[in-house]
Amino acid sequence: YLDEDGSHALPSPQVSDLAEGQPPLVQRLDNAARAGSIRALEALAVADLIAGDAALRARCDAFVSAGLTSSNHSEEEADGVVTRSIGLFVFEGYGLIGRCCTESIRAELTRKLVTTMADPVDIEPNRASAANALLNLAPAIPADEVGDVIDQLEPLALGRYAPSRWDREHLDSLHPYSRNRFDIVLPDALRAAALRTIGRLVHPEHPGSADRLSALVEPALFTGSASVVAAALDVLARHPKLPIPVPLSVLLGHDDIEVRLGALKAHVARQGLPSGELLDQLLADPSPRIRISLRSGAEQDAAGENLLRRLLADSDVFVRALARHSLEGSHTT
């Protein structure tokens, strides 16, 4: 994970989860963050292990401030010809690290992410990445900015945005007879990201929040787009009192892993852990991510110890490590 070659398969939240309660691992992350590792800084931010450390907070401020001044848009003129280009930019890490920044920098980061997300000229991967970064930043978005962020997200979560010229060229390239093909982003990435983020930001007890979210979730479930369906399920997991028009048992058998994960998360939030044949089906799922999610659900369930013991025999080493960590933690508390 700490190698800078990009070959690691673990996102920062999972690394943070694994390090929780393991002082040697936390110390390694701390040492790496002080030595300049951005990935380690992300993991510490997710684990909320930075707030009281002035040196690490200063690193967070410096990293995010540098990102605020960068641009993925460029314009060059040669022989009277103006060439404009847009590059890919990954914002998600700024949202994680931004949680630990000073309030003024968090406010500035929030505005930059909203501006990028709403920019009709930018490409969908960048706009979706900015929306995902707002999801990561959500717990620390300044209170006076939240309402405007939600208002900007709402039309995007309904899919009410036109593709930019760059996105249209990408979509045209997907035609089977196209000479040039560009595999940049899945369609609906921005809609899915906006839907997840608005589900995180809308308070369930706020007047009108249920109707507002239902108006976004119900059409999303019937789009036929796996990424949008998965995002709708994420909202349903965060807001378990919302009505759901599709049986979760059906969605747990979906071909797409993100949909299955979303359905499992919603099932645990609404009905608890699956049992019987449905649980057996999930334990045999080809993706270890399903068993990792089951492990998380087992930690929250009074009857989850038997499931954790079954996961100790899993074929995936990371699933086994997480299950062992959960069992050890439950026996020491």
Task: Give the helix/strand layout.
Elements: H1 12-19, H2 23-34, H3 38-46, H4 54-69, E1 73-78, E2 81-86, H5 92-98, H6 103-117, H7 124-137, H8 143-157, H9 165-173, H10 189-201, H11 209-221, H12 226-238, H13 248-251, H14 257-271, H15 276-283, H16 288-299, H17 305-311, H18 317-332
Antiparallel strand pairs: 1-2
Helix pairs in contact: 1-3, 2-3, 3-5, 4-6, 5-7, 6-7, 6-8, 7-10, 8-10, 10-12, 11-12, 12-14, 14-16, 16-17, 16-18, 17-18
Would you write up a description of this structure?
By secondary structure, the chain is mainly α. Helix content is 62%, strand content 4%. The chain has 18 helices and two strands. It has helices spanning 12-19, 23-34, 38-46, 54-69, 92-98, 103-117, 124-137, 143-157, 165-173, 189-201, 209-221, 226-238, 248-251, 257-271, 276-283, 288-299, 305-311, 317-332, and strands spanning 73-78, 81-86. It has a two-stranded antiparallel ribbon with strand order 1-2. A hairpin with a 2-residue loop joins β1 and β2. The chain starts with 11 loop residues before the first helix and ends with a helix.
